[in-house]
Amino acid sequence: MASKKPAAQTPRGLSLNLGLNSVSAGHYGGWSGELAACEFDAKDMAALATGRGMKATLLLTKDATRAKVLAALRAAAKTLVKGDFFLLTYSGHGGQVPDVSGEETDKLDETWCLYDGQLIDDELYLELGKFVAGVRILVLSDSCHSGTVVRAGPPPLGVLAPELRSKMMPPSVAMRTYEAHKAFYDKLQQDVAKAEGGTVVDPDEALAGVAVSTRLTKIAKRFKARAVLISGCQDNQSSYDGQHNGAFTGRLLTVWNRGNFDGNYATFHAHIKAGMPAIQTPNLFTMGPVATFLKQKPFSL
């Protein structure tokens, strides 16, 4: 009698949801970056994840420290296997630090403004690169400078409606924070360079495989997991805060419609983008072999 094949294991899902309504003025040169809706964004995304069968970790404001975020990312990378799903959402300020590890000294690296210090995009890419082949990763970033990596300046002041709160860390604060902690941020970038064999992975290249294209860069091809990033805005735009949700997260939840949305990731992004104001245009980028992943319904295990 032929032995039965073992039953396929149900894919697991983990979610890490970050929302910061302020940051530590002690680290950011006296600036606390007050926002209103970021904790709501994180809570709503955690509820969505839980409803889809994921185990959610929620880190809000003072708990969203560099140590806790990195520990949660590394724990997820060690836990998940091929076929599993990881959702990472961030709502808060986007910042910048000078790129000291690349060939072009005038570059700026994108950051997420965590409570006690910034998480540099190079660090985030390195952590996501630790997930094993076949893990599906969805990153939703409701912050400024979230298109890929900032290479353009902030939007002209004339396009900002006075009642809107931008999620951009003011450039003066960004430089003041960097100068006060220069050795710390420079070392973070140098450590990533060492981990990558002496050259830092440029997320501009790593995120260059747009969903509608089959072309992926050399760096993206080296990415073992399958990652989709839907960001709140283009590189030269701001993401905006609201009363209950940020503009991007609020629109995303409306399109999702409590699970009644019936398209794939590409159409999900298109529907979100269609309902956003011209001053904030969400972006979609990919890393790794994502062709099959992109055809799935969002948040599917």
Fold and architecture overview:
The chain has 10 helices and 9 strands. Helix 8 (247-256) packs across helix 9. A hairpin with a 2-residue loop joins strand 5 and strand 6. The strands form 2 sheets. A 6-stranded mixed β-sheet has the order 2-1-3-7-8-9, with helices on both faces. Strands 4-5-6 form a 3-stranded antiparallel β-sheet. The two termini are 34 Å apart. It has helices spanning 38-51, 66-79, 121-128, 171-180, 182-195, 203-206, 218-222, 247-256, 265-274, 291-294, and strands at residues 13-19, 55-60, 85-91, 94-98, 108-114, 117-120, 136-142, 226-231, 283-287. It is an alpha/beta fold and 301 residues long. Helices cover 31% and strands 18% of the residues. The chain has one domain: Rossmann fold, CATH 3.40.50.1460. Mean pLDDT is 80; it is low at 146-162 and 201-220. The protein is globular and about 50 Å long.
CATH top level assignment: Alpha Beta
Q: What's the architecture, going by CATH?
A: 3-Layer(aba) Sandwich
Task: Provide the helix percentage.
Answer: 25-40%
Tell the overall outline.
Answer: globular
- Provide the β-strand percentage band: 15-25%
Q: Round the mean pLDDT to the nearest integer and report it.
A: 80
Indicate the structural class: alpha/beta
Q: How many domains in all?
A: 1
User: What string gives the helices and strands in order?
Assistant: EHEHEEEEHEHHHHEHHEH
* Uncertain runs: 146-162, 201-220
So what's the oligomer here? single chain
Q: Please report the distance between the alpha carbons of the first and last residues.
A: 34 Å
The largest pleated sheet is described as:
6 strands, mixed
CATH overall fold name: Rossmann fold
Radius of gyration: 19 Å
Strand segment tally: 9
| Strand order within the widest beta sheet | 2-1-3-7-8-9
User: What's the total helix number?
Assistant: 10
